[in-house]
Amino acid sequence: MQDIGPPVPPFRRFLALAVPAAASLALFVDFVAIKARAGGRDNEVYRYRDYSPGVRGFGPGDFHYKINWGELAMAGSLAVVACLCAAALLASVLPVNAGVRAPAGSDGVQMGGGLLASLVIGVAAAGLYAVGAAEYIVAPAAPFLKWAVTPLLPLATVVAVAAIAVARWGRRPAVGWHVWLRFPMSSVIAATAGMLLVHYTFWHWTDTPLVEAAARFGGLLIGVGAALALAQPLPYRVVVAAPLGAATALLTSPDSTGVLGVIYVLAVTVWWAQRLWQLAYRPPVAWQPPR
Fold this sequence. Notes:
The chain has helices at 10-32, 34-37, 42-45, 69-85, 87-91, 108-137, 142-149, 153-169, 177-181, 185-201, 209-230, 234-251, 257-281, and strands at 172-173, 287-288. The two termini are 12 Å apart. Helices cover 67% and strands 1% of the residues. The protein is mainly α. It has one domain. The chain crosses the membrane at residues 14-34, 72-94, 114-132, 144-167, 179-202, 214-236, 256-273.
């Protein structure tokens, strides 16, 4: 599929895909490293109610250490982001119309199919994160799936609607598909660094006030990362980042990482909702006609 927008340097295309993919893997590896930090003893990470062989029951209070559920949620969301950045590449191998009526010369059906395929791959990767972490830590998969996949449902809904809209309307962004799909790398880097810092401080939370300050700075970075996704012009980013970063910094604690992770996933969802809004309400002059 030929992109009609201004040419994007290949290295920039590579970075748009590689940065969220690397961030997702880094968060996942750091998430499962809790077992190594506990000395590899399964019962130090996850406490069973019944130690008899084959029993994998769990209930409130079974987790011995505070597991960083927000980190798992962010890892899953960035896996989806990375896959969606590659949607144009996946679309290029799909049939042009696939038997669906579309305007002459339109690649909307291809692009819509690429978006859906990328979404499915990304959500599947998040599910594999959950199952793999549960097996590695030796714990029931249900809570891991809950935090890795459930926060992605609003995002998946928005992307699916956007894919249908692309296929139905046959519009093309004037900036080209690669630019239109590119998620802000600054957002990914800030939020990932913040969550890694927050997770590191888990193991030293009560040591010194400096450690708590570092944790809250990590929470601040997560809020800033979310703001960088929510707004594009620099003045708007500053306006959004100030209160959101302050709020996430105040929320930061070993018990609130799930909230921090979900905040960032919601920011990703809003970013994609903005893309859907562009499809629906941007004036026709903002789009190039198919050729």
